Amino acid sequence: MKNLKIPIFIASISLLLAVLNSFAIISVGAMINRIAPCAQDPGNSFPCFGMYDVTFDAITFMIFVASTTYVLYEKIRKKK
What we know:
This protein is mainly alpha-helical. Helix content is 70%, strand content 0%. 8% of the residues are buried.
């Protein structure tokens, strides 16, 4: 169980970051927009920096899935 603490911690943090970003409590796209502003297209309702939020959510979800898969694999392997 000791060697599973780090993957569980990584999975928890990645899930927390994805949830916070999804509910716009933190917004990676807005932070990037402050550093490098983009021009908003009036014909598009999706903000020009919205793709950063979607990408961030996808990356954190992949990290969560990978960490969770590793933890489950190790638990199943130790039962045998």
